[in-house]
Amino acid sequence: MSTPDLVGSGMTSPRTRLRLVERLREQGIQNEAVLAAIAEVPRHIFVDEALSSRAYEDTALPIGLGQTLSQPYIVARMTEIIVDSGPVDRVLEVGTGSGYQAAILSRVCGTVVSIERIGALLDKARERLRLLNARNVVTRRADGHGGLAARGPFNAIVVTAAPRTVPEALVEQLAPGGRLLLPLGGEAQQLTLVTRDADGETTTSQVESANFVPLLPGVN
Ligand code: SAH
Q1: Atom 13, ligand 1: which residue's CA is nearest?
Q2: Where are the domains of the chain?
């Protein structure tokens, strides 16, 4: 990877990024820390150079190997939900992908642990997170169905690929009061919030419809 232009110019400039922030505000994102993170993190370095002029459109973009970087709205929304619902000292992301969501989380959370099953994507994501000096992000190649118990328990777990059912291991790795936010389903998905109380009891609520790639088994 050639060293990317972190500041950006023209279609990748900080001004273009601020226009995206204004659009997210209009769509209902209110958390100022989350909006500031979107304004600060250069999304264009998380996609191939050929796509960088589209990085600040509110659209999902391909990141290779059949995977996609979610649209900024859903990244902002998921981050806002976990930040607004309780502590975020220790957060697990399942599905590092490009590393963009991890970079946003790193601005508003204590420690971010992010796991990805595809080694080639993880290598690129690590390089980008290093360039951005995101030192509070730890990445591992692992199957997200199992979470990463050795690094838990987590105040929040954000899953950015869709399983059909809630992976039990993830619920078990929630700290008391922990929140698990994940898209559930196949063709039609629902972004779902599972909250674990101090007794280990869980409460589930549906947030909105979603459209993620599937959570696949094993590592690659
Ligand atoms: N959060 C990412 C978007 C990820 S797309 C970003 O900001 O760019 C979903 C990612 O989940 C893909 O990279 C895919 O390889 C990964 N994934 C799918 N199944 C997985 C699993 N079982 N464990 C870990 N990662 C998985």
Answers
A1: 97
A2: 59-210
pLDDT in tens, 81-134: 999 999 999 999 999 999 999 999 999 999 999 999 999 999 999 999 999 999
Region for residue 61 given its phi and psi (left: phi exceeds 0; alpha: psi -120 to 50; beta: otherwise):
beta
Q: Is 2 a catalytic residue?
A: no
Measured by CA distance, the residue closest to atom 11 of ligand 1 is 95
Which tokens hold the place of 28? 């209902």
Question: Which entry of 52, 70, 98, 106 is annotated as an active-site residue?
Answer: 70
CA-CA distance, 85 to 137, in Å (whole number)?
21
Angle (deg, nearest 10), helices 14-26 and 32-40: 150
pLDDT tier, 4 (very low <50, low <70, confident <90, very high otherwise): confident
Global confidence as pTM? 0.97
Q: Which of 196, 158, 192 is nearest to 177 (CA)?
A: 196
Q: Which CATH number applies to 59-210?
A: 3.40.50.150
Residue 176 · residue 154 · CB < 8 Å: no
- pLDDT grade, residue 174 (50/70/90)? very high
Q: Is 211 in the pocket of ligand 1 (CB under 6 A)?
A: no
